[in-house]
Amino acid sequence: MRTFVAGKQALVAAEFVELAYGFDELPTGIDRELFIGVPGESSEDRAARETVAREVLDDLRERGEADEVTAYDAIYAEALMHTVPLLRSSDRVLRSFRKGDAA
Questions:
Q1: From CA 32, how far away is CA 91, in angstroms rounded?
Q2: Which of 26, 41, 93, 97 could hold 102 in an S-S bridge, CB 3.0 to 4.6 Å?
Q3: pTM here?
C-alpha cells in the first residue's frame, strides 16, 4: 500500500510526518522518540518514557506562555503523544481480524 500526502508519496514514517505537518526538516529540539516511543519497548520502559514526556510537555507549555515558537513545539509534542505508529496500528487490526473481532 502506498501513502500519499498532498500528492507526494511518503516512503518512510519520517517522510510522512514531514509531509503531513509541512516540515522540510523535523523541528530541532523535539525528541520524537520520547513522545512516540520505539517499537518493542517494554511496558516499564514505556511508562518511564511517558512520565518524562509529560514532564517535558509541561515544561514546554510553561515556557510557551512567553515564547510563541516553544508554544508550537508544545502543540507538536502533544500531537506526537497521541499518534500511533502505522505498523503498530496495523498489527492490532490484523490480530483482531485473525481473532474474528473485525466486522
A1: 21
A2: 97
A3: 0.57
Cβ pair 62, 52 in contact under 8 A: no
Residue 17's closest CA among 89, 99, 83, 90?
A: 83
**Residue 84, all three cell numbers:** 500511533
Burial class from Cβ neighbours inside 10 Å (0-12, 13-18, 19+) for residue 6 reads exposed
Is residue 57 a contact partner of residue 64, using CB atoms and an 8 Å limit? no
Q: Residue for cell digits 512567553?
A: 66
CA distances from 71 to 3, 6, 12, 19, 41 (A): 30, 26, 27, 21, 29
Report how far residue 18's alpha carbon sits from residue 26's, in angstroms, rounded to the nearest whole number.
7
Cell of 62: 510553561
Packing angle, helices 68-81 and 43-64, rounded to 10: 160
